[in-house]
From TrEMBL:
<keyword id="KW-0547">Nucleotide-binding</keyword>
<comment type="similarity">
    <text>Belongs to the class-II aminoacyl-tRNA synthetase family.</text>
</comment>
<dbReference type="GO" id="GO:0005524">
    <property type="term" value="F:ATP binding"/>
</dbReference>
<keyword id="KW-0067">ATP-binding</keyword>
<dbReference type="InterPro" id="IPR002319">
    <property type="entry name" value="Phenylalanyl-tRNA_Synthase"/>
</dbReference>
<feature type="compositionally biased region" description="Basic and acidic residues">
    <location>
        <begin position="173"/>
        <end position="189"/>
    </location>
</feature>
<dbReference type="InterPro" id="IPR045864">
    <property type="entry name" value="aa-tRNA-synth_II/BPL/LPL"/>
</dbReference>
<keyword id="KW-0648">Protein biosynthesis</keyword>
<dbReference type="Pfam" id="PF01409">
    <property type="entry name" value="tRNA-synt_2d"/>
</dbReference>
<dbReference type="InterPro" id="IPR005121">
    <property type="entry name" value="Fdx_antiC-bd"/>
</dbReference>
<keyword id="KW-0496">Mitochondrion</keyword>
<feature type="domain" description="FDX-ACB">
    <location>
        <begin position="333"/>
        <end position="450"/>
    </location>
</feature>
<protein>
    <recommendedName>
        <fullName>Phenylalanine--tRNA ligase, mitochondrial</fullName>
        <ecNumber>6.1.1.20</ecNumber>
    </recommendedName>
</protein>
<keyword id="KW-0030">Aminoacyl-tRNA synthetase</keyword>
<dbReference type="GO" id="GO:0004826">
    <property type="term" value="F:phenylalanine-tRNA ligase activity"/>
</dbReference>
<dbReference type="InterPro" id="IPR004530">
    <property type="entry name" value="Phe-tRNA-synth_IIc_mito"/>
</dbReference>
<feature type="region of interest" description="Disordered">
    <location>
        <begin position="173"/>
        <end position="195"/>
    </location>
</feature>
Amino acid sequence: SAQKEISVEGKTYKLDEWMNTPPTILSAVSRRLHVQPDHPLTITRQLIESRFPGYKAHNELFPIVSVHQNFDSLGFPPDHIGRSRTDTYYLNKDTVLRTHTSAHQADTFRANESEGYLISADVYRRDAIDRSHYPVFHQMEGARTWDRNAAEKEGKTLAQVIWDDVAKIPKHDIKVEDPNPPHHAERNPRQGTHTAEEVEAIAAHLKRSLEDVVVAIFNAAKTASDAGSRSADEPLRVRWVEAYFPFTSPSWELEVFWQGDWLEVLGCGVVQQSILINAGVSDRLGWAFGLGLERIAMLLYSIPDIRLFWSTDSRFLSQFSSDSPIKRFVPFSKYPACFKDVSFWLKTSSNAAGGVGHVAPSASASATSSTLGHSFHENDVMEIAREVCGEVVEDVRLVDEFVHPKTGRKSFCYRVNYRSLERTLTNEETNGLHERFRQQLVDKLGVELR
Ligand code: PHE
């Protein structure tokens, strides 16, 4: 008999067949890493906040939100992949663990307490397992709006007022690649409610503000790197690329060239006017961005594995301090990896894995299959690995995929890397974990081991 309700920090939620949130995920709610003194996420947050003077910072917003807040209020279409139970943690049909800080946009605009705001918070997503993905991570959302009526009362256009604010942003001399026009009718349209001059001014303020953040981060990272070790004199390269989000238009992503690759560090754009209108501030126009704090902190400190942020080991925590300059993280000894494979046939009968059938078509992960009338989603494999292994799984990847030529049955082989960041695992322990992982795949997904 399934549990009917659940309490999280004194709040009670009814559960229904949409519930897919394991207890280990719920237990992360109380951690609040981004406000723990001297935690690298806190220091990173504070460094970014310091580049937005006057913006109101919200750091305590509760992570359990409505589907309306997380998706509907932002204009996500009903069939958007992000809403699927394979990607998002639900408590019930109307209640999720927020998947992004944008879940608080509409409410924060409605409260209308400040021209600019920042929201830092834990966010939750079912996803792959590797050294840069963990099902709980932290984002910072920022937004800045201006009142068009107020500008015109002063005898100025809104664009003029915004350009005056652009001039107040600290200048930098890094190389920025920004080959696209600020808006493009097909690829990245300006909203009908905005003039070209307004969009151009908002885009300039947004881009200069975020470039200033990146410059501040990389200057801090440069002082952190041991003299001469990392290409300290290699100039910072950043570029703007066009993007799409349901809640901004035009939209962009900012990428930074880091160790040979372009790395996406944030998404942003001009706020959909419908969100501001619905929030009762129809005269206001502006921008919003969202960035991943772990990703920035990993760059800032050279932290090699995202699981470290959750560590309570003093060999990790003692390396960070709010009141001394940023120092590069010195990894404590690397413990041995242990690779183990598991191969299985997907279930062929129609009563699908995971109890109630998945609600939306799944197509985001690398291994999905909806043949034979049920769906298999890689994120379910990932979650079982997390549930069985906790922090002791470093990486899970699909290494082989095979369709039987006669029966049409599908087989997958996953390779699990068992490794603790804090100690050497014994053979008995990894064998035991792997055996439990295999058994759970059978019990929960109905697969047949090969
Ligand atoms: N919420 C988006 C994400 O999680 C980022 C974003 C925030 C984009 C605000 C535009 C504006 O990917």
